[in-house]
């Protein structure tokens, strides 16, 4: 039994979905099989996140640096993403999910953009949960793009150098339009960030699990959230004497 408190949920969860290749290799299968199995994990995790009531879920699906992978693997990833978007379209719309993409979406092949863009438009008024897909995304690239925009404004005289503040940069980060991530989960056993949401990570709680993404279960998401709820977020201030837990309304999740 995992206990998740209903009133202390992270609003924005980010996931570095890692380990598809190793999952396949362990089974003597191709890396693409691992990505296919990983797309099934995406389906169950999105459904569970919505049912829990998270406000935003950001999934790191393809980094800017992943373009350096073999072309056959990249092509297969785009086909799987297209299939995911087509098969989940009704579930996304019926459940009020806003589907958004962050990253250098212009670089994606037209087979993906042709399904991504209409779904993005059709779902943009939805409010139950924002599903941010990080595609051709890099945290450093996002910061550089925002910095470039501020530089242009200063050069054009519409802004002064003193107005270049952390808040001004923040407002220009598409990944943070849903707010800073409260919890970031990385599967696959590596303890690194790999260029995900760098600016927004300032006070995120980090959770690492050895589970490879294809074997990550809904219960693993609950475990990560329960771990988050047991932590004290201090934001540089001094802490409370003891974490307040008593009387909290809990959602009991049978596993
Ligand atoms: C994550 O799994 C998916 C993507 C980066 C697209 P990997 O493909 O990185 O799997 P491993 O880390 O090689 O096992
Ligand atoms: C991070 O995984 C990127 C995604 C999950 C999309 P990688 O497999 O690309 O990261 P590294 O190479 O292990 O740092
Ligand atoms: Mg990897």
Fill in the keyword field for this structure.
single chain; 255 residues; 17% strand; binds 3-methylbut-3-enyl trihydrogen diphosphate; binds magnesium ion
Mean model confidence by pLDDT: 96
Distance between the termini: 6 Å
The counted number of beta strands is: 8
* Name of the CATH class: Alpha Beta
Tally of individual helices: 7
Strand order of the largest sheet: 4-5-3-2-6-7
Low-pLDDT stretches are none
Largest sheet: 6 strands, parallel
When the domains are counted, the total is 1
What does this entry show, briefly?
It contains 7 helices and 8 strands; from the N terminus they run E-E-H-H-E-H-E-H-E-H-H-E-E-H-E.
Task: Describe this protein's structure.
- This protein has 255 residues and is of the alpha/beta class.
- The protein has a single domain (12-229), classed as Decaprenyl diphosphate synthase-like (Undecaprenyl pyrophosphate synthetase, 3-Layer(aba) Sandwich), CATH 3.40.1180.10.
- Helix content is 40%, strand content 17%.
- It contains 7 helices and 8 strands.
- The strands form 2 sheets. It has a 6-stranded parallel β-sheet with strand order 4-5-3-2-6-7, with helices on both faces. It has a two-stranded antiparallel sheet with strand order 1-8.
- Helix 4 links the parallel strand 4 and strand 5 (129-137).
- It is globular, with a radius of gyration of 19 Å.
- The N and C termini lie close together (6 Å).
- The mean pLDDT is 96.
- The structure holds 3-methylbut-3-enyl trihydrogen diphosphate (IPE) (2 copies) and magnesium ion.
- One 3-methylbut-3-enyl trihydrogen diphosphate is lined by residues 16-18, 60-63, 66, 190, 192, 194.
- One 3-methylbut-3-enyl trihydrogen diphosphate binds at residues 16-18, 60-63, 66, 190, 192, 194.
């Amino acid at each position: 039994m995992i206990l998740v408190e209903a009133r202390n949920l992270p609003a924005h969860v980010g996931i570095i979905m890692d380990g598809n290749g190793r999952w396949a290799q362990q089974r003597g299968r191709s890396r693409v099989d691992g990505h296919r199995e990983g797309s099934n994990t995406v389906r169950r995790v999105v459904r569970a996140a919505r049912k829990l009531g998270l406000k935003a879920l950001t999934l790191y699906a393809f980094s800017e640096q992943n373009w350096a992978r073999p072309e056959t693997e990249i092509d297969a990833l785009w086909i799987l993403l297209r299939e995911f978007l087509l098969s989940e379209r009704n579930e996304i719309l019926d459940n009020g999910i806003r589907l958004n993409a962050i990253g250098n979406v212009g670089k994606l092949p037209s087979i993906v953009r042709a399904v991504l863009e209409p779904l993005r438009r059709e779902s943009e008024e939805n409010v139950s949960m924002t599903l941010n897909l990080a595609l051709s995304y890099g945290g450093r690239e996002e910061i550089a793009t925002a910095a470039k925009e501020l530089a242009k404004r200063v050069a054009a005289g519409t802004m002064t150098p003193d107005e270049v503040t952390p808040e001004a940069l923040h407002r220009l980060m598409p990944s943070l339009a849903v707010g800073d991530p409260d919890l970031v989960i990385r599967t696959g056993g590596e303890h690194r960030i790999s260029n995900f949401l760098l600016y927004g990570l300032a006070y995120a709680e980090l959770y690492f699990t050895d589970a490879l993404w294809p074997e990550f279960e809904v219960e693993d998401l609950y475990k990560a959230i329960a771990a988050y709820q047991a932590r004290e977020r201090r934001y540089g201030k001094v802490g409370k004497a003891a974490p307040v837990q008593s009387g909290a309304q809990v959602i009991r999740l049978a596993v």
